[in-house]
């Protein structure tokens, strides 16, 4: 059996009970590992003063995990610094928030090089190598330099911005030069694919051979939109079974006859959380009869708290929340419930099913799996309504959601009103159409589509792969 070697910054090693982690990437790759034996390589999540040069190996089922510690300087420069303070904001169209530092960039390259040198010893000639996420863009170049000639793919989970935005990052051309060392680059949407292809043409003089095929100097790379899906059946079942959860029972009792609006996001400025709270405020001001009739629950687990922009966001959210609840709340009713704990997939599925409205209004998002999970979790007899930002990758597929511009608070507030008053017939029709889309591109099809594309690129291409 052929091996799949996955590399990602975080490695979701199953816990002692063997239970796999619940994140989107973990579930998606679990599917891919059904068809291949696997090796999953990345950061252990730990920091140590003298990390070993070789990874720690942990075998679980048919997957071998290989993880490396970082020094605290590595974490600061590679993860907090370049990946999350310079690249993340640029990729999310926030040029003004991007803080570039040469030291951070050097740290980013150093960690990619040390990952590649440890990984090169573990790669076998027939392995398919599959790199994930923006932390590791230069990894293929480092692997090629270490003599690896295997097919290497990269999946970019977050948006790829327009060339004018990407070009604002110092060293953007150097980062782009790493792209053709991959054979296949998968992105979430057609817009991302187009943006990346245009960047390669404009910054590196790449030549387009076919719609998704580009020649850059002596290498050929395929850039393709392969939107990530979810485990639709698994999520539906989790939602059906969720009724017995204590937390859900408490939530139902607390709601009484009120309708629930739900938002679930990592606490990240790309998700538009304070803006969403202000939108809800606008809705309550424009529709005073709805006060006391509806509760908005925002779940926002804390994220990347060592990065200053995230600490600022946390303060802004708390201030916005306090102001709105203080000015519009009543003794028996709190308009916005805000929780920073992370909940299990089972609890989230139950909360999604309970909510009449799923409010998914990121300012920019690669895909947004919450939108897909919200749809999958609905009760077929009485489904809720998804309000979805046009700037989430999911909006390219879920066209039967109420699609909104998150920057237009009036528009989103009116979408909330429309969703709360939508007939059961219209809710059902929209939900059925979206479920059909989810099923057509669920996570097993995503993994299969990638593998098939991948095997296709093994066919000889007319341009020789050098090195
Ligand atoms: O969406 C991109 C991504 O890197 C995911 O792959 C990851 O699960 C998520 O962001 C969380 O980020 P972090 O690992 O920084 O907590």
TrEMBL record:
GO molecular function ontology, one term from the record: alpha,alpha-trehalose-phosphate synthase (UDP-forming) activity
Alphabetized Pfam families for the sequence: Glyco_transf_20
InterPro entries: Glyco_trans_20
GO BP, sorted A to Z: trehalose biosynthetic process
Family named by the database record: Belongs to the glycosyltransferase 20 family.
Protein name in the entry: Trehalose-6-phosphate synthase
